[in-house]
């Protein structure tokens, strides 16, 4: 069992489906673990589970959560602050791919780069392509 | 005078269901969280304020601040979603003057002495007594976690306890 470098906190546990998808691109990423927030979890139950896993994580690891304002992020904020572990919300595939590749290739995470990657990964695809075409023609 | 469009008891306070479902459903443009604990926890308070949906103003008040503001100006203006962590809180502020017509009970945390009555809602003997006292004062009490569920009445829930 490899050390947990990235912990996903998601509603209902969709993070593990994302992991399987990302593994199609990157191969095995067994340093990614998840604590799903289940419908019957109370805040306290969930916090306990997250603390238990975070205790085995080093300070240079990362917690990725799905939505700001959700219990996943609220709990991550408390636990991450206590443990000195970075928390980024807004989990998506590009974010997980970038974070996982950094670990695979350099065994460390560049948080600035990750935040930026998350921000630029959402695009209006056809609109952007048309804009580029216009510039070429122009 | 503000209008209280929803008074919800939810141990998680602001979280996914409240932000996405109940804010829209109730058409609230303000959330007032009443929590003595949160007032003292500057860090968590910032997390909640930071995660407010666009256009929604969030205030965090202690019980006594809330009662005072209510007495002064009925929370000022706007459509308020009032959020409290447990049933003891609502009984306290109700008795001190915040007379809401309806309270909606959402998620309440589990503990060994608490019994599940509906989905993730649990109650203990003290809660039942508190709710009975509120019920006697004609407060409409409903149990509902998300808008898609049909609300359960207090009478129904009592049968399950």
Give the strand order, joined by hyphens, for the main sheet of chain A. 2-1-3-4
* CATH class categorisation of chain B: Alpha Beta
Helix content of chain B: 25-40%
Please, how many helices of chain B?
Answer: 7
CATH-wise, what's the superfamily of chain B?
Phosphotransferase system, sorbose subfamily IIB component
Segments of chain B where pLDDT lies below 50 for 5+ residues?
Answer: none
End-to-end gap of chain A: 56 Å
Major sheet of chain A: 4 strands, parallel
Question: Based on DSSP secondary structure assignment, what is the total number of beta strands of chain B?
Answer: 9
Total helical segments of chain A:
6
Q: What string, H for helix and E for strand, traces the elements of chain B in order? A: EHEHHEHEHEEEHEEH
Number of strands of chain A: 4
Q: How does CATH name the architecture of chain B?
A: 3-Layer(aba) Sandwich
CATH fold name of chain A: Rossmann fold
Look at the structure and name the CATH superfamily of chain A.
Answer: Phosphotransferase system, mannose-type IIA component
Rg estimate of chain B, integer Å: 15 Å
Gap from first CA to last CA of chain B: 38 Å
Mean pLDDT of chain A: 93
Helix percentage of chain A: 40-55%
């Amino acid at each position: 069992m490899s050390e947990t470098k990235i912990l996903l906190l998601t509603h209902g546990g969709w993070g593990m489906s994302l992991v399987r998808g990302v593994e199609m691109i990157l191969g095995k990423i067994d340093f990614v673990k998840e604590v799903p927030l289940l419908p019957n979890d109370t805040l306290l139950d969930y916090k306990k589970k997250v603390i238990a896993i975070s205790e085995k994580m080093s300070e240079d690891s990362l917690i990725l959560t799905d939505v700001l304002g959700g219990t996943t992020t609220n709990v991550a904020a408390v636990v991450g602050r206590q443990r000195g572990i970075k928390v980024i919300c807004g989990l998506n595939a590009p974010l997980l791919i970038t974070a996982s590749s950094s670990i695979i290739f350099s065994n460390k995470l560049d948080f600035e780069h990750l935040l930026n990657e998350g921000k630029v990964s959402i695009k209006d695809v056809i609109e952007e392509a048309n804009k580029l075409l216009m510039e070429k023609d122009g | 005078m503000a209008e209280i469009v929803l008074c919800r008891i939810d141990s998680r306070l602001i979280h996914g269901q409240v932000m996405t479902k109940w804010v829209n459903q109730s058409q609230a443009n303000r959330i007032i969280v009443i929590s003595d604990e949160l007032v003292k926890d500057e860090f968590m308070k910032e997390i909640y304020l930071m995660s407010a949906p666009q256009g929604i103003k969030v205030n965090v008040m202690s019980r006594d601040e809330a009662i005072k503001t209510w007495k002064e100006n009925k929370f000022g203006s706007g459509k308020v979603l009032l959020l409290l962590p447990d049933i003891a809180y609502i009984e306290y502020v109700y008795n001190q003057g915040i007379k809401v017509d309806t309270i909606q009970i959402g998620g309440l945390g589990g503990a060994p002495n608490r019994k599940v009555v509906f989905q993730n809602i649990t109650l203990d003997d003290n809660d039942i007594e508190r709710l009975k006292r509120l019920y006697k004062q004609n407060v409409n009490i409903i149990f509902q976690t998300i808008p898609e569920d049909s609300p359960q009445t207090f009478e129904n829930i009592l049968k399950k306890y």
